[in-house]
């Protein structure tokens, strides 16, 4: 693990790089949060769809989604079990209650991950605030030093020319 470095020990250029890195990290976290919200919503809808099967009858006509905008007609073969995708190309057959429970657990897991991401984003946001404050201080010190040097040069410049 890297040793912590005091922000006051960093140059303005290094602080600017750290700030940019934190901003990029926060942007990525924000995008990930949107993806997690979408995933939680999809699992919620899937759970409702599986639950809906409990009230249906075998042979009842249904529309099956092939894509988000393309559906084909079909008929319910079995209303007692569902096929769940549990990973890339892996499927498990469960009873309807097991399917509903699986979707519910997935929603809870995704929401837990969202909370962890949110906590991490708050920590990074606080770090960004500290880095920006340190950078403002360093830039203020640099500007004050330049003004003092300019004032000193202006004070000594005309006197040296008269001698």
TrEMBL record:
Entry annotated with the keyword Transmembrane: no
Coiled coil ranges: 110-137
GO cellular component, one term: cytoplasm
Pfam families: Prefoldin
GO function terms (MF aspect): unfolded protein binding
Superkingdom field: Eukaryota
InterPro entries attached to this UniProt entry: PFD_alpha_archaea (IPR011599), Prefoldin (IPR009053), Prefoldin_subunit_alpha (IPR004127)
Renumbered residue ranges of the record's region Disordered: 144-163
BP terms from Gene Ontology: protein folding; response to cold; RNA polymerase I assembly; RNA polymerase II core complex assembly; RNA polymerase III assembly
Keywords per UniProt: Coiled coil
Homology family: Belongs to the prefoldin subunit alpha family.
Name of this protein: Prefoldin subunit 5
Organism: Chlorella vulgaris (Green alga)
């Amino acid at each position: 693990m890297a040793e912590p470095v005091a922000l006051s020990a960093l140059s303005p250029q290094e602080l600017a790089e750290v700030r940019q890195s934190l901003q990029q990290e926060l942007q990525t976290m924000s995008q990930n949060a949107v993806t997690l919200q979408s995933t939680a919503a999809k699992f919620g809808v899937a759970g409702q769809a599986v639950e809906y099967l409990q009230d249906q009858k075998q042979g009842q006509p249904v529309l099956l989604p092939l894509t988000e905008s393309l559906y084909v007609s079909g008929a319910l073969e079995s209303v007692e079990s569902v096929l769940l995708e549990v990973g890339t190309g892996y499927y498990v057959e469960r009873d309807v209650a097991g399917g509903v429970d699986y979707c519910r657990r997935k929603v809870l897991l995704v929401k837990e991950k969202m909370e962890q991401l949110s906590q991490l984003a708050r920590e990074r946001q606080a770090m960004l605030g500290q880095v920006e404050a340190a950078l403002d201080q360093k830039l203020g010190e640099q500007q004050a030093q330049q003004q003092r040097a300019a004032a000193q040069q202006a004070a000594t410049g005309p006197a040296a020319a008269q001698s």
